[in-house]
Amino acid sequence: MGAILRQVRESDLEMIMNWRMSPEVTKYMYTDPKLTIEDQQNWFKKINLNNDNEKYWIIELENGIPVGLMSVNNIDYRNQQASWAYYIASLEARGKGLGRILECNMYDYIFDTLGLNKLWCEVFEFNEKVIQIHEKFGSKIEGRLVDHIYKNGEFFNVIRMGIRRNEWEQLKGNMEYKKILIENY
């Protein structure tokens, strides 16, 4: 399976809105938004204001079908770190090796293209599958944030994970993955 990460277009906004409000996606996110096209247009303007602190891409399969969203946020060149997140909204695209492609290519992008030292993320503790995927490709658990997110009437713990450039450099040679195009901003 191959993919590309292409910049978000205005024509993607309704699709992203529907993905973002899907229970299969919001289950793993901090919020359960009720979005409108106007909300999406405001978000689109915000992310396209030459914002050096965050980048968003549509995850698109080789056949041109969009299946999810990838973002890099909190880009901090002074401290050489950033956070990231992605979701595969298409249930048909899950479990087919796309995670490997996305993880490894994003590590290359962060460390080689952006020149940062660390990439980190936060994952709900109950999302064991994603924690295992991140660990499989070199991210390590750095901490546990207890009762960190209040959602749907209950508190949830969050796992903070990260990988550093030197850790990826040691692992990279043992990883087989298809290189993909990541559109530059």
Mean pLDDT: 94
Order of helices and strands: EHHHEEEHEHEEHE
The total of helices stands at: 6
The helix-and-strand class reads: alpha+beta
What helical percentage do the residues reach? 25-40%
CATH class: Alpha Beta
Q: For the CA atoms, what is the radius of gyration?
A: 16 Å
Into how many domains do the coordinates divide?
A: 1
Identify low-pLDDT runs.
Answer: none
Can you summarize the main beta sheet?
8 strands, mixed
How far the N terminus sits from the C terminus, by CA atoms, comes to 25 Å
Instruction: Report the portion of residues in β strands.
Output: 25-35%
**Which architecture would the CATH scheme give at its second level?**
3-Layer(aba) Sandwich
Strand order of the largest sheet: 6-7-5-4-3-2-1-8
* CATH fold call: Aminopeptidase
How is the topology of this model organized?
Blueprint: E1 3-7, H1 13-21, H2 23-26, H3 37-47, E2 55-61, E3 66-76, E4 81-88, H4 98-113, E5 118-124, H5 128-136, E6 140-151, E7 154-164, H6 165-172, E8 181-182
Parallel strand pairs: 1-8, 4-5
Antiparallel strand pairs: 1-2, 2-3, 3-4, 5-7, 6-7
Helix pairs in contact: 1-3
Walk me through this protein's architecture:
The protein contains 6 helices and 8 strands; from the N terminus they run E-H-H-H-E-E-E-H-E-H-E-E-H-E. It is α+β, with helices and mostly antiparallel strands. It has a single domain (3-182), classed as Aminopeptidase, CATH 3.40.630. Strands 6-7-5-4-3-2-1-8 form an 8-stranded mixed β-sheet. The mean pLDDT is 94.
